[in-house]
């Protein structure tokens, strides 16, 4: 495996494998590699192993555009998603391009050489690689360190405290009293998954989230399967879900009070008569100010209705030897406490960037077309949607990178860089109030108010910009290094 590459991809998760598939399909002769910090591919879907872990987007938009989702379930479990990503890599030979246990430390660009020099740590030693183009698919959160607030008195607790990001394989919750602290997607998934075996599961939340019951299997898929071919069925269901998701989001933003009442009413209909919906399922924020929590086939509501689980809306005052004392004075007895308290954001895997000997922090840059960074040459990154499936954006960015490299090939360029005079005026993710985002967004690149520098959580906007409009404009500068003779393996000479 060469250490002087055409393209280097960082991250072997859903986005990284998809990017590699698109690259080698477009350029069969391309020299590329994937650096993965962990010892297995799959990213998020290999890291998280807690009970019931599953997608929070439907699999017909979460799966790749080029590879239909093979299952019938709209919301698949983590192992099924991991198997899907692995099969995609193995079938295309991408798995042979992955270098595991390579954590990227730094990336330095030289305009004279028209190359990146990348330093990675592998089994305690530093490894040096060079590449003409860098595609970052390392996700957006810290894999080793989740957000873990310090709860008073936790050292006194005689039971087990677990964070979902570091789930122990030998944890047995059967017959145990479980308290899940949190109200996000992880907590909404954990509670019904553990309720069948636990003595009781309590979801302890400081404030409610929107929870929407959705069908576990897509009705259109059930109707079309066997009548059309696999790809035609997949395309129809995928587009139906894209349109439905986009329409629901826009309706929520246009009529937030109406949508809030509709979601609350739907929750009340799934819960026993007299249930205190206003306390436990009536958020103070508008729909889609935070990502919506989905309950396939209403599994959370069923667990609450059966009495196997309950919701408590209160604050942790302190841990005791036998459980948690709440601010209200009430106490929750527990054998196991799960702190589903969220993620810790980390841009681009914590890589340090240098451009011509000058260090460039991501927060100093502005996002170009949702895929590149101002002032940093020959670099693309994947950051998905907060209101759609992550992979919808990943697929588009992969296509854009192929189009960009193809244009460089045609014109003999070895350098492209978005140029912007000023730093962006607003956060990369605007109007999104989730606590984990607010805690760490200042370390991320910025957005601005006008195209092509505004980050829009809009699939149809990106579909036009990344797939159909011309690659270049006045803000994307192309050039060829004057002092560097381009070798035969250059991006301008790879096979198509």
UniProtKB/TrEMBL annotation:
Superkingdom, natural source: Bacteria
Single GO MF descriptor: flavin adenine dinucleotide binding
Pfam families cross-referenced by the UniProt entry: FMO-like (PF00743), NAD_binding_8 (PF13450)
Keywords, alphabetical: FAD, Flavoprotein, Monooxygenase, NADP, Oxidoreductase
Cofactors demanded by this protein: FAD
Family membership noted in the UniProt record: Belongs to the FAD-binding monooxygenase family.
Protein's UniProt name: NAD(P)/FAD-dependent oxidoreductase
Source organism (scientific name): Saccharopolyspora terrae
């Amino acid at each position: 495996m060469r250490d002087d590459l055409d393209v280097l991809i960082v991250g072997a998760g859903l986005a990284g494998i998809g990017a590699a598939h698109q690259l080698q399909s477009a350029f069969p002769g391309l020299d590329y590699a994937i650096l993965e910090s962990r010892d297995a591919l799959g990213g998020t879907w290999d890291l998280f192993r807690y009970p019931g872990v599953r997608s929070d987007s439907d699999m017909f938009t979460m799966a790749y555009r080029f590879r239909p989702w093979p299952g019938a379930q709209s919301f698949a479990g983590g192992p099924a998603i991991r198997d899907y990503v692995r099969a995609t890599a193995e079938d295309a030979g991408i798995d042979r391009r992955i270098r595991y246990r390579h954590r990227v430390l730094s990336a330095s660009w030289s305009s004279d050489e028209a190359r990146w020099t990348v330093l990675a740590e592998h089994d305690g030693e530093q490894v040096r690689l060079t590449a003409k183009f860098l595609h970052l698919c390392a996700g957006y959160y810290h894999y080793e360190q989740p957000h873990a607030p310090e709860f008073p008195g936790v050292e006194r607790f005689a039971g087990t405290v677990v964070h979902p990001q570091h789930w122990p394989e030998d944890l047995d919750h059967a017959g145990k009293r479980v308290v899940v602290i949190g109200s996000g997607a992880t907590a909404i998934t954990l509670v019904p998954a553990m309720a069948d075996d636990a003595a009781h599961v309590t979801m302890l939340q400081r404030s409610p989230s929107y929870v929407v019951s959705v069908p576990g299997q897509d009705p259109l898929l059930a109707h079309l399967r066997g009548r059309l071919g696999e790809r035609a069925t997949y395309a129809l269901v995928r587009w139906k879900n894209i349109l439905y998701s986009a329409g629901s989001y826009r309706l929520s933003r246009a009529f937030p009070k109406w949508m809030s009442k509709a979601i609350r009413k739907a929750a009340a209909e799934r819960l026993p008569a007299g249930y205190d919906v206003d306390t436990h399922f009536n958020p103070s924020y508008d729909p889609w100010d935070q990502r919506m929590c989905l309950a396939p086939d209403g599994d959370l509501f069923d667990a609450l209705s059966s009495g196997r689980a309950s919701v408590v809306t209160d604050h942790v005052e302190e841990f005791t030897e036998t459980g948690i004392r709440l601010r209200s004075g009430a106490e929750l007895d527990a054998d196991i406490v799960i702190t589903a308290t969220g993620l810790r954001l980390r841009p681009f895997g914590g890589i340090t960037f240098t451009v011509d000997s000058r260090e460039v922090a991501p927060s100093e840059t502005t996002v170009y077309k949702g895929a590149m960074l101002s002032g940093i040459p020959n670099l693309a990154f994947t950051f998905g949607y907060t209101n759609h499936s992550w992979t919808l954006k990943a697929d588009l960015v992969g296509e854009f990178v192929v189009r960009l490299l193809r244009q460089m090939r045609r014109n003999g360029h070895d350098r492209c860089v978005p140029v912007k005079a000023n730093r962006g005026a607003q956060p990369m993710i605007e109007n999104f109030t989730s606590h984990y985002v607010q805690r760490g967004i200042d370390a991320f690149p910025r957005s601005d108010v006008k195209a092509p520098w505004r980050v829009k959580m809009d699939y149809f906007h990106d579909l036009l910009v990344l797939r159909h409009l011309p690659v270049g404009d006045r803000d994307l500068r192309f050039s060829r290094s004057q002092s560097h003779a381009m070798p035969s393996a250059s991006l301008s000479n790879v096979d198509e």
